[in-house]
């Protein structure tokens, strides 16, 4: 995802991938509404067809309707293998240099951390590859090699409990959605291809050492459910615990981190994968602007400021969910109370759904205008050539958007020096739209609003344009 964003911004990009071929492990399978919106804005959803959709999710195993105003509400079930295939085709088509079979061995940072980096990797046959670059970004997972090589601080806590899981063919067990039994938690979901994913936790059990064998999964499953799945054919077995860690700094000079390399959390409800993809979209356009000499002072530092705070909040909600999900009988009163609040208090449901889906992220939370810092809301508009919605507007090829809602010729003149970085669209919103009294809206390449103009406002968008898109050569 990051490589694609960098290429959209015009930055030369090399991806070093340790694996010789794409993984066949199913891993994560949930895309949330905000991630779907971002993929839509890059024109990527058409290739997915119509994936299975589920409006209902959960918070710590307590059922939760995730429906909120969005063209893609709820959960969308896309195997991680398909998501990776989609993104690989996209970035290669954009000209990213993808080098498989290359394992990072060393990183050298220039003096004072500001003179670029040299990465050394071992390639096929042990051949060494040296890559010199302005920046290096670790998107290499919770056991990040780049993090280890650079000594980045990764404070937090290790796992105290774990959930065992396996994809198993040839078994016939009932589907279970977070079924809490006397001895533990059991989850089972049979896919269209006949493979069943099972997940199980025995109350009170701590994490084992290393990756589990299928025999261990089968034994725990039998103790918790009474069912024997030992004769099945395991296609994939692993476990994940409730470890909780976050980098102190997402950026140190020319070294940055995104995704699980920046934060480690229990992958409950698909939040980990979605959090990582959204890190990449936040970082990509900023880093590309920096590389191309277009970034205003401090733009790249907003990546840490914005995404560290989002990551901290997600980790907090996952800690709460882990307690509700893996706790024994002692958590039942809390689960019952939360279920009542979700069912009887719409504000509680919407708050939790916004948190899990990523739709409630707001980077400028102290601004008086609720649009500022939030994603451009899903609205219907009427343009010169017919009806539009927010998804149509944001397909800008990685550029920003100035939405002129009043047909203001002066506004279009003001933004003209940034015409290579901003797409200008004139349209009128439907009555009572979520845009309120705004007569103009300036949106970053990642879809978040950085300026609004209203009736009687004397300030134009020039300061916001300079603060987020730099000083144009045409100024």
TrEMBL record:
InterPro entries: FAD-bd, FAD/NAD-bd_sf, RIFMO-like. Its cofactor is FAD. SUPFAM superfamilies: FAD/NAD(P)-binding domain. The keyword Flavoprotein applies. The keyword Flavoprotein applies. It holds the Pfam family Rng_hyd_C. Keywords: FAD, Flavoprotein, Monooxygenase, Oxidoreductase. Residues 1-316 form the FAD-binding domain. GO terms for molecular function: FAD binding; oxidoreductase activity, acting on paired donors, with incorporation or reduction of molecular oxygen, NAD(P)H as one donor, and incorporation of one atom of oxygen. PANTHER family: BINDING MONOOXYGENASE, PUTATIVE (JCVI)-RELATED (PTHR43004:SF19), TRK SYSTEM POTASSIUM UPTAKE PROTEIN (PTHR43004). This is FAD-dependent monooxygenase. It comes from Streptomyces chartreusis.
